[in-house]
Each structure stands twice: as C-alpha cells, then as structure tokens.
Amino acid sequence: MARVIIAPDKFKGSLPAKEVAEAVAAGLRRAVPGTETLACPIADGGDGTAAAAVAAGFEFVPAEATGPTGERVRTGYARQGAVAVVELAAVSGLSLLPGGVLAPLTANTVGVGELIGRALADGCTRIVLGLGGSASTDGGSGLVRGLGAKLLDDGGRELPLGGKALLDLAHVDLTGMDPRLREAEIIVASDVDNPLLGTQGAAAVYGPQKGATPEEVALLDSALGHFADVVDPAMADAPGAGAAGGTGYAALTLLHARFRPGIDVVLEMTGFEAKLPGADLVITGEGSFDEQTLRGKGPAGVAEAARRLGIPVVAMAGRLALPPETLQEHGFSAAYALTDLEPDVTRCMAETAPLLERLAARVAADWL
C-alpha cells in the first residue's frame, strides 16, 4: 500500500490549501483504492498561514480587530500553548477592503497590532507573524500603533493612519507600548526578502498591486524613507523589511522581531519533516507554478525537504510555466497542470476541486 503526503499551498482565488489536499486525496484513493494519504496543507507566511497551523492541530481563537480601512472585522489567530500564529492577511489584507475598493495611501495595519496584543493577553509568548497579502503600504506604522505606540507630527499631534501620513512624522512615542512585548519572541515569516525602499522596495514592487499610481508609489517610497530616517535608517536594507507594505520594517526595528522564510516556519510548525519517513511520494502545488514558485514559495520548500530524504516530489498546479528541466533542478520529479485537462483558465478556477481529483488520477497512474 502506497503512502502519499499531500502538502499543497492554496490555489489562490479558487481553493484553500486544505480543500486542495482533500480533492487530491480523493482522486488518489479513487484511482488506487487502499492508498494511504496524509494531508499537510502549507503556506509561506501569506494567506492561509493560520489555516495551515489549525490543520496541524493548533486551536483557532476568534477575535475582532480593526480592518485595513478602519472598519471592525471578524478575524482570529491560531494558538498552541504559548505559540500564536497571527496572519496579517486575515486582518489587514486586500481581501478585507470594503467593496474591494483599494486604498493605497490610507490603508493600515492597526488590526495586526491589536491581534498580537490579544495573543499576548491570552498568555502567548512566541508570536509567529505571517506577512503577505497586505492592503497597505504603511511601513508597519499601524502595527505598532495597535500595540500602543503613538506617531506624532512636529506639533505633537497624532498622525492619520496610512502610509501617506508618514511624510509628516516627527517622533515615535513608544512609552505606551504593550509591556508584555518585552517577554515575547516575535518571528516574522514571509516569502519575500525585499528591502524597505527603492526599486525593489515595498512601494515600488507591491504598491501597484494595492492600487498605487506611479506618482503614489513615489510618494509612498518617500514617506517610508522618512519613517526610516526617524526610526532607524540602517534597518531599511534588512532582508524582509519591505514585506507586506513595509510591515516587516516596523516588526524588525520596533518589535525586535527575527526574520525567517515563511515556508521554513510553516514546515516546522506542521511537523512536516517528521511525516516524511516511510512516504513513497510527496505531492505539493499551488495555483500558478512559475519562477516565483522557486523563490521562497511553499512548494519549493516542500521539494527541498523531501529531496533530502530521496522521496520523489510531484507538483500539481492550475497553470504550469516552468520547463521540465528547471523543475528537476529544483527537486520536482514531475509536474501536472489543470490546464492539461481544461484549457479554459476561467473554468479551471471555477471547477478546481473536481479537476484536481481527475488530475490526481493521472498522478496515481504514473507514480502509484
């Protein structure tokens, strides 16, 4: 009887990682009855990080917090003992913008700080902060405000929320910060290592995705640069400072967080490597398999871990944009795409689960 570990990331816009794993498992078992499947949904610090923790046995703790444009949102974090997993996308993410209306200059991360504060109040002393999918480019200024900091202009007045307002920053008052932070360890988990500023920075690379025009990108980059000048200019170049609209910067400088690749954190959290011995095959995947996949995304981390034990890894994707030789160089034995079954991408996204089941039958025929 074959033993298969199924460790996919989400198929963005169509299916969460847990449901991807369930569909693949159903297809394998239908094709080869008796196949033992073990689901291990993953994430890379962005959307789905808390869900991956819950799938691995963490408890979901519901909460309310401030959304990206000031409205209250229902959210929560994942907890296991003294460890909390706080996912930025679940409280300050693009998907939570009211009516989907982008707010590149004013969206903020206050709710992330509030959620960390809730975890601290609940007794958590190790906070994994998953960064990705943010609606804002506020440098994480909202994050620290949600934990009690004040950002003041030269008249001693508190600034409005959002990245644009940072142009008027004169002083950051940390005296009201949650004292429990002194006893806490903060881990920033992200799949990007961009600096805060410049052509590879938070505003230039990710601002347009959040609705920023070229002029607004330049304004936000200047605002973030001024924020860094006031707080700590040297840390603007730190790997991960530009993650999630610069939230990484505030976490690294003002919360004294430690940056780690998101997939490494998630694989540890889910006990992935302990599940590998005895496996005959590992299946991973995500919606689009392309060059970005190989740069710190979840499936690449899964392949690296399985390759160390000599276990073949198969990728399943919505669309595949990598040649076989590149995949093999990065530890993938083969790759399969939904577009092999259904060329219409719209239908692929609408019918992801049944198509995954069918595609899993092909994998079973080739590998089991």
UniProtKB/TrEMBL annotation:
Keywords: Kinase, Transferase. The keyword Secreted does not apply. Signal peptide: none annotated. InterPro entries: Glyc_kinase_flavodox-like_fold, Glycerate_kinase, Glycerate_kinase_RE-like, Glycerate_kinase_sf. The keyword Kinase applies. GO terms for molecular function: kinase activity. Pfam families: Gly_kinase. Belongs to the glycerate kinase type-1 family. NCBIfam families: glycerate kinase. PANTHER family: GLYCERATE KINASE. This is Glycerate kinase. It comes from Amycolatopsis cynarae.
